[in-house]
Design a protein that fits this description.
Oligomer: single chain
Helix content: 55-70%
Number of domains: 2
Distance between the termini: 22 Å
Radius of gyration: 24 Å
Structural class: mainly alpha
Number of strands: 0
Largest sheet: none
Order of helices and strands: HHHHHHHHHHHHHHHH
């Protein structure tokens, strides 16, 4: 399931796009946001099935070698450890994964060059050769190998990034979050069991969180921006990057609108997000401004926390 940080980032990007472009109603903007999150979820089964296509490509290579007129000794006696990997077999035989791929019209059939590229990259890696040359086999070893494939071969692969960008402009940015979901799925897999796919949202509260945060941040943007401006009087407000303002105003919307989320959690989340999605050095600037704003709003009673929100995590 998507983390709260991922959902916050989606809200920030949607708000940024709204403020940068044509004005739509809150209802339409919210619908577009939720559709975007749903599209991001498509990438989860898509990436999870990638190792299956790599395995099928490897099987094809073995068959081609066996059918050669003068096969080599290696081609006559191929090492089948990779194509016999029990975890990959589970993924390939998973009805739930297959149903999701069919329903969402996902697959790698149109990307043979990518499959070949990732296969070659994998077979050149140390983790692959260590796996193929190790004696015996176990389910734990098979799972570790698949995890290494996603960590060492898939992560940060430029060709994969380009292919994903052609399919969806948001997928390349989503990949790191999706890989976390893939690794969690692999970690939870058990021998001879159906693959337990992660849901899109952890629970109904997370979907409600997205809707409410976006609505509060959008409707209260001008009011929250006025608060920010009070604490940036020594700055040229017009020169503060739009994303910086979006981060700070959304943080204020969360601080004042969600009594069950501790102040420290909100501050830590938006400061971390700013490191990756705002301008160079913005996280330090945003940290200082939000710290002052939260302290003063707490003193004024504008931030009220209850239950879990009272806990300093």
């Amino acid at each position: 399931m998507f983390s709260r940080r991922f959902l916050r980032i989606k809200v920030l990007k949607a708000l940024y796009a709204h403020l940068s472009g044509a004005v739509e109603s809150v209802a339409i903007e919210e619908k577009n946001l939720l559709k975007g999150i749903d599209k991001s979820y498509d990438l989860y089964p898509h990436i999870l099935s990638l190792i299956v296509d790599i395995k099928r490509y490897a099987e094809e290579r073995i068959e081609i070698g066996l059918k050669k007129h003068l096969p080599t000794a290696e081609e006559l006696n191929p090492n089948r450890k990779f194509v016999s990997n029990a975890v990959i077999a589970q993924l390939e035989g998973s009805d739930s994964l297959d149903s999701m791929l069919v329903e969402r019209k996902l697959g790698w059939a149109n990307n043979p060059e990518l499959i070949k590229h990732l296969y070659n990259k994998m077979t050149e890696a140390d983790y692959y050769n260590e796996y193929m040359n190790s004696e015996g086999s176990s389910y734990t070893e098979d799972r570790k190998f698949v995890e290494e494939f996603y960590i060492q071969t898939v992560q940060d692969d430029q060709m994969l990034t380009e292919v994903l960008e052609e399919s969806s402009i948001m997928w390349s940015d989503d990949l790191d979050f999706i890989l976390i979901m893939v690794l969690r799925t692999l970690s939870a897999m058990r021998k001879n069991s159906e693959v337990a796919l992660l849901p899109q949202y952890k629970n109904e509260d997370d979907e409600a969180f997205v809707r409410s945060l976006f609505a509060r941040a959008l409707v209260g943007y001008e009011e929250n921006l006025a608060i920010v401006e009070q604490y940036t009087k020594n700055w040229d407000v017009e020169r503060i990057a739009l994303m910086d303002n979006v981060v700070m105003t959304t943080a204020i919307a969360e601080l004042t609108g969600f009594d069950s989320i501790p102040v420290k959690v909100t501050l830590d989340e938006y400061i971390e997000i700013a490191k990756y999605y705002s301008t160079l050095g913005s996280s330090t600037f945003i940290n200082g401004i939000l710290d002052k704003i939260s302290t003063d709003l707490l003193a004024k009673g504008a931030i009220v926390k209850q239950g879990r929100g009272l806990v300093e995590i």
